[in-house]
Amino acid sequence: MIKVEDLAKNFNGLWAVDGISFEVNEGEIFGFLGPNGAGKTTTIRILCTLLQPSRGQAWISGFDVLKAAKEVRRSIGIIFQDPSLDDRLTAYENLKFHAIIYKVPRKERSARIDQVLEMAELKDRRNSLVRYFSGGMKRRLEIARGLLHEPKVLFLDEPTLGLDPQTRNRIWDYLHTLRSTKNITLFLTTHYMDEAENCNRIAVIDYGKIIALDTPNNLKRMVKGDVITVRTENDDLAQKELGEKYQVTVQCDSSGLHFEMENGEEFVPKLLKHAEIPITAVSVRRPTLDDVFLKLTGREIRSEIASDKDQLRLRVRRIRGMT
Amino acid sequence: MDWSTIYIIWLRDIIRYVRQRSRLYSSFARPILWLFILGMGLRPSFQAIQGFNYTQYIFPGIIAMTLIFTSIQSAISIIWDREFGFLKEILVAPVPRTAIALGKAFAGSTLSIIQGTVMLLFAPLVKVPIVWHQILLLIPAMFLISFALTGIGIIIASRMTSFEGFGTIMNFLVMPMFFLSGAMFPVSGLPAWLKTIIYINPLSYGVDLLRRILLGISTFPIIVDCGFLLAFSTVVIFLAILFFNRGAY
Q: Which GO terms describe its biological process (chain A) (predicted)?
């Protein structure tokens, strides 16, 4: 559905995107995970034909992003990072505007508008001015609008940035429903680790390069074993036994013995079977994507917002979300 | 040509205008200030110009002022749309930017004509008699003037990325354009250098055309007024489309 080959973009000598290649299958939820400034938005802007790449090629639904911009634009829907609704218009007027510029046939217009409003649970707010909407409602309306012309691919640039956890969950429920009912391909960027968990596959991007690409589970498995905690009847003896038997570093504290082991779940039965010191409790903690990012880059992904511009953007969104 | 896009871009601006009543009211404040305070204040010190007193004489100029401010402001709303994100929604759509620019130009012209027509309500107060056929002539004249002015606004908006330059534009373009259009004083008897500037200012021909329709007096032949304005709007709209197409967003 999306194919990208050696895509790169240079801004004043700086490679914002530095030779990335990947493919996204039909019906997939594909995530771009990375810190601010990693090149996520630049990639989206190139794929949406808003920006010319410095080199490389990309196709969406078989259309060349560089040569068939109009066809590409018809087959995609975009939810921008910043709000892009006209808040002096009503929900219905915003949707009608979109339907007309995307050439939705006149006969189908009002039926489709009703349909997306229903899906976004905004039917009762159809004729309210958007300026009185909450941040979450605006976001849902933007997603509804993005779907109005029945795109094959929906791009979401930081779809839940600045929204509270309940609203984020609600938007994700909405997106999952959407995917299952419409078989639409979702391409999203995020720097929230828990959000990336919703994806079928994730590309971890840093300094314009893809440094890992896999399913969330494989990513976690790839970099680190699970964290296993056991309690035994005799911790001192057990610590020695585990260390010798499995060649692991075992740390001991008041909550029990901790060590790392690959494929922890498969290891537990083995551990129990061969344990000489009776084990009273076992827990296996999966590594989080935070651990993955740390392992891959040596840095933690910053979920708090770094730059002044982002701060301002967030504040604007909050203020506009409040009214 | 993508008429449905031009139409919806136009309609959106009209809806926004109707909803923002404050914009309507405040747009009268400036011309009223100029016409009644400045005009009345200066009237006693001026002798009649071609049989008209000072407030009568500047009345067409004040309408031109309404047109220039409304047109430029309306086109500048592109910057506002960019700041608040809505421009992206328009620019990423599978529509030619030419249609977007034309929609904006028609919207700006429509709003200017509305504002300019409403200004005619003040005509009886300054004793400028108005007959129906004058209004029928005024509308195309106002369209010609504001279409060109909106074009200028679009060019500015395509080059300007923030509101910081807005004051500069007003001080260095809009106000001089207004002052040097013969709106506030007759051109005859001015020093040659000032005359030259007025002659190359397209708004001068607009003011002259309005004055011809409203008062029946003029500096240039009608063919020169219309010809200059027509040529100027064509060039400006062409440039506006070019700039708008090239602008990076």
A: daunorubicin transport; doxorubicin transport
